[in-house]
Design a protein that fits this description.
CATH topology: Rossmann fold
Largest sheet: 7 strands, parallel
Distance between the termini: 19 Å
Number of domains: 1
Shape: globular
Mean pLDDT: 94
Strand order of the largest sheet: 3-2-1-4-5-7-12
Order of helices and strands: EHEHEEHEEHEEHEEEHEEHEHHEHH
Radius of gyration: 19 Å
CATH class: Alpha Beta
Structural class: alpha/beta
Strand content: 15-25%
CATH superfamily: NAD(P)-binding Rossmann-like Domain
Helix content: 25-40%
Number of helices: 11
Number of strands: 15
Length: 293
């Protein structure tokens, strides 16, 4: 049985477990020892290490046949130092993983003025966190070429699920942009993203990027309205772009400054992917149960 190393053991990583259990010997890289019991109870082997402490990563060398990487990049600076340290640790092993799947962000595309975006569009990140994602992708693709590792990158947009909705924002009455100022956004249900990760592990192409998005085509304010209606909450007030910039924090406003619609044709063709929740309306009332993949 092959050994699979999971880096970044949060929500999406946990959702992959029903599809991976029994197929791989799973090693979960954990920073917090208190999480070990959860993973051990599900048949995984906890490995205590910290992506911010390179010396702690020595044990990953030669450990895994495949890697699933869900962890966020370094918190500041222009480079993802965490990725650099992890790849350096993997290179020290007598053997390298043959497959590496990384969840990146659709933010690497920057503002596309509402255009439909395929994976061939060059990245033009506008934010520091998106620039770090681009750096991580470039490091990985270089690693894949040099070491002949099959690296597959999933660029994920806004992730939602029953427990990942902007309900607090709606309750607080934070505004959305009026129609003429609003931006297009793409989404993916957390369960579908987990299933796509597992598909990439088996079918992803070498040094291949995939837009991991559903079929929805909504503006951001329409998404908030839909969530509000389904959850019995007031729709957010609509304001001009100038008013939103004045009243919202720079971090919140930055999400209102990029407009794009992700084309998911590549993953459908190459993975044969069938999304459980093709559009947001399908997934808003989902229970979160996992079907066999």
């Amino acid at each position: 049985m092959q050994t699979l190393l999971i880096v970044g053991c949060g929500d999406i990583a946990r959702r992959t477990l029903p599809y991976l259990a029994g197929r791989y010997r799973i090693v979960a890289l954990l920073r917090d020892a208190r999480e070990a019991a959860f993973w051990r109870a599900r048949g995984a082997f906890p490995l205590l290490a910290d992506l911010d402490r390179p010396a702690s990563l020595r044990r990953v060398a030669g450990l895994a046949d495949a890697v699933l990487h869900f962890a966020p990049p370094t918190a500041s600076g222009p480079r993802d130092v965490r990725m650099r340290w992890l790849l350096a640790a993997l290179r020290r092993g007598s053997s390298l993983p043959r497959r590496f799947v990384y969840i990146s962000s659709s933010g690497v595309y920057g503002d596309c003025a509402g255009a439909r975006v395929a994976e061939t569009r060059p990245p033009r990140p506008l934010t520091a966190r998106a620039r770090r994602r681009v750096d991580a992708e470039r490091q990985l693709r270089r690693f894949g070429r040099d070491a002949r590792v099959c690296v597959s990158i999933l660029r994920a947009p806004g992730i939602y699920a029953a427990d990942r909705l902007p309900l607090d924002r709606l309750r607080r009455g934070w505004p959305a942009l009026r129609e003429e100022d609003d931006v297009f956004t793409s989404h993916i249900h957390a369960d579908d993203l987990a299933r796509l990760v597992c598909a990439a592990l088996r079918r992803g192409g070498p040094n291949r990027v995939y837009n991991a998005a559903d079929d929805s085509c909504l503006k951001m304010g329409d998404y908030f309205d839909l969530v509000a209606d389904r959850r019995g909450l007031p729709r957010p007030p609509r304001v001009s772009r100038q008013e939103a910039e004045r009243t919202l924090s720079p971090a919140r406003f930055s999400f209102m400054s990029e407009s794009r619609r992700l084309d998911n044709g590549r993953l459908r063709r190459e993975f044969g992917a069938r999304l459980r929740y093709p559009v947001i309306a399908d997934g808003l009332d989902a229970s979160g149960a996992n079907d066999p993949f």
